[in-house]
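Contributing new records

If you add data, match the layout below exactly. Sequence lines come first and carry their own label; structure lines follow with theirs. Keep one chain per record. Anything else will be rejected by the validation script.
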Amino acid sequence: MPQDLPYREFYYPLNVFMYVLSHEEGVVRYLHYGLFESERESIGTAQERSTDLLLARLPPPPARILEAGIGVGTTLARLTRSGYDATGITPDPKQAAIVHERYGDELRVHCHAFEDFEEDGAYDCVLFQESAQYIDAEALFARARELTPYVVVADEFALRPIETPGALHTYERFLAAAASYGFHLEEEVDLSARAAPTIDYFLTRLPMYREALVADLALTPEQIDELLASGTTYRELYRAGTYGYRLLALRRD
């Protein structure tokens, strides 16, 4: 059993996804969705493709980049090793700790919420990979206006009205908040059809790991059932076009 990742310390349900990934892939390199081109490819390949698309929108090194939401540090390490002046932030001390454990002092990481992050000087780009959804859109762009002229986002959005508690940012409101702080949409790529199979990946595998998850993560069978039920509902929201996945490049006027 892979032992390189302390997934047991992460909060539910992220610990469940990390558990599955560590056993299926041998290591957890990313915590974000993959962009699949076929059912046969690994989720690691699909996740790498997502990051490639994101990084292709960045200015060339040695541009100053802020990654807001670092996951387990793979993208930040790639930026740093490619010659970028890269900084990563996360409000989650567990993520900060695992990045430090993996990379030591090689990476520049701060444990801060983006809304409260203060830094001298401007960034050439602020990067959000599935972290924008956890930040109020108004607060995000208010802070981004002070830090950068350019924002790149890969994330999920509610594309149609939905009254479910904890629903995703509405796409319309997100872009309205951007515009109110002087950011216009420079590029939009709809990645919904390629991202949605990530949900299927976990829905297929969770039943396979049910007993191990209960034993190793001290979960209850009811928690696994709830996760499967919510995942099924989530997949239907994608299928109906209520939820979608977008790559956005926004530039300040």
